[in-house]
């Protein structure tokens, strides 16, 4: 039998797709990367994944794992060689078990994040990861990129939200590491090794996830500010006033929100014209274990103190669930408004919060000197130092002319990130987009250890080749 016939024998004829059926899997969400593949394969179980990997290992066929295909760095897109298969995990979408007493649940990698949130809610619990793409992104992809989202400030990234993993190795063995334990000190932490590896070491097929008690109430507020310095000061005040109850703290440039309102006219800013046009806004959320009245009283007290300080010009506190959702919808619509305006040069970076204001000022100035007229599209999770620092076409720039200077823009921004003691990837991963930059900005000893791990766990280099690491040195 041919290689494709053997694949069909493993997963069934209707779960090996080629031609037009495969096309949606071959281009990334941003439409920046497109590739070719022998086929797209949709296994329905971990045993089928393992059998597909063994077949590919024997034939030397590369494997590109893919979840919801919502990644932003080309990490789940095949190259142009046409040699690889895309292994889609969307059929593996079962909630295997929910254990409310242990505050944990076992889910398959193809589960949409929203389905996991709803399963936790039905059990009276909270799974706190929240992303704009939660209706289509999958748990496997969230784990592969160590996703963060809007509530990292309180709950951490996926690395903190996963207790155990089930993984198919590059040789087709199955590591059955689903454990609902908070403590397991029996050797190397393999779980953390596979989380964030973008499918380059093995394929995550299931996970044991942490659950939390649902808060009794949440309160949301949008704050208009004159500077990032004022936003950093407000963050310090909110941490002091709310402690662990501070769930989210999102920074948004005024231009970003203006773009949302232009693109989606049904959305509105809850401020008068003066405050609405201020250069910076913060969306913060407080979770409370007592009551809505208690939460609102705490929020009003702390924000009242903030308004009395310099830099804070106006505050809008949501008085209903609908108003809270509307405020969050503004924040979540920024990437959609940005996409509607055309392609930009995107940076997903982390900076020490204490250096954030200086970084933005210095990097904005350097970009304007080097590329006069470009637009700065800046928003992100200030509470954990994660900024989406994007550069878009401005006066005198076309989309094509900007993208032609992409490498130079990357170099400038990443150099400033490095000088500030930051990281060139905070939550989107490396994929294809940043693999060359990794060589430039990663500690060489750290990079050498990564190559050693890659050779040890994927000796034939079939697991998502060309992602994260350029090649075996």
From TrEMBL:
Flavoprotein recorded as keyword: yes
Protein name: FAD-binding oxidoreductase
The UniProt record lists the keyword Flavoprotein: yes
UniProt family annotation: Belongs to the FAD-binding oxidoreductase/transferase type 4 family.
InterPro entries: FAD-bd_oxidored_4_C, FAD-bd_PCMH, FAD-bd_PCMH-like_sf, FAD-bd_PCMH_sub1, FAD-bd_PCMH_sub2, FAD-linked_Oxase-like_C, FAD-oxidored/transferase_4, Oxid_FAD_bind_N
Organism of derivation: Rhodanobacter caeni
Domain FAD-binding PCMH-type, chain residue ranges per copy: 33-214
Keywords: FAD, Flavoprotein
Taxonomy, superkingdom: Bacteria
């Amino acid at each position: 039998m041919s290689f494709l016939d053997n694949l069909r024998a493993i997963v069934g004829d209707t779960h090996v797709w080629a031609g037009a059926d495969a096309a949606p899997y071959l281009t990334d969400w941003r439409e920046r990367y497109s590739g070719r593949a022998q086929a797209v394969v949709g296994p329905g179980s971990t045993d089928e994944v393992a059998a597909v990997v063994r077949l590919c290992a024997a034939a030397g066929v590369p494997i590109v794992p893919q979840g919801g295909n919502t990644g932003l760095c080309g990490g789940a897109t095949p190259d142009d060689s046409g040699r690889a298969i895309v292994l889609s995990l969307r059929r593996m979408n079962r909630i295997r078990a929910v254990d409310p007493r242990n505050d944990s649940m076992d889910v398959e990698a193809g589960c949409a994040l929203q389905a996991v949130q709803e399963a936790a809610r039905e059990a009276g619990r909270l799974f706190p990861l929240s992303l704009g793409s939660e209706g289509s992104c999958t748990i496997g992809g969230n784990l592969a990129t160590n996703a963060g989202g809007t509530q990292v400030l309180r709950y951490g990234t996926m690395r903190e939200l996963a207790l155990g993993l089930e993984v198919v190795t590059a040789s087709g063995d199955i590591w059955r590491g689903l454990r609902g334990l908070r403590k397991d000190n029996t050797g190397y932490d393999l779980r953390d090794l596979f989380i964030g590896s973008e499918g380059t070491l093995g394929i995550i097929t299931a996970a044991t996830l942490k659950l939390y008690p649902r808060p009794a109430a949440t309160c949301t507020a949008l704050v208009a500010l004159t500077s990032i310095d004022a936003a950093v000061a407000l963050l310090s005040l909110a941490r002091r006033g709310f402690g662990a109850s501070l769930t989210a703290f999102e920074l948004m440039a005024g231009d970003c929100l203006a773009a949302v309102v232009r693109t989606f006219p049904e959305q509105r800013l809850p401020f008068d014209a003066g405050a609405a046009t201020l250069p910076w806004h913060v969306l913060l959320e407080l979770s409370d274990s007592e009551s809505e009245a208690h939460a609102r009283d705490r929020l009003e007290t702390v924000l009242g103190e903030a308004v009395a300080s310099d830099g804070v010009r106006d505050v809008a506190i949501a008085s209903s669930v609908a108003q809270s959702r509307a405020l969050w919808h503004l924040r979540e619509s920024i990437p959609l408004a940005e996409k509607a305006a055309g392609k930009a040069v995107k940076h997903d970076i982390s900076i020490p919060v204490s250096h954030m204001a200086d970084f933005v000022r210095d990097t904005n100035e350097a970009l304007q000197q080097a590329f006069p007229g470009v637009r700065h599209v800046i928003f992100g999770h200030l509470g954990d130092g994660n900024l989406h620092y994007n550069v878009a076409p401005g006066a005198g720039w076309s989309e094509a002319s900007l993208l032609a200077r992409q490498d130079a823009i990357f170099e400038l921004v990443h150099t400033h990130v490095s000088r500030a003691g930051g990281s060139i990837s905070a939550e989107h991963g490396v994929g294809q987009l940043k693999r060359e930059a990794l060589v430039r900005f990663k500690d060489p000893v750290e990079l050498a250890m990564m190559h050693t791990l890659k050779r040890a766990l994927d000796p034939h280099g079939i697991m998502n080749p060309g992602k994260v690491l350029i090649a075996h040195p």
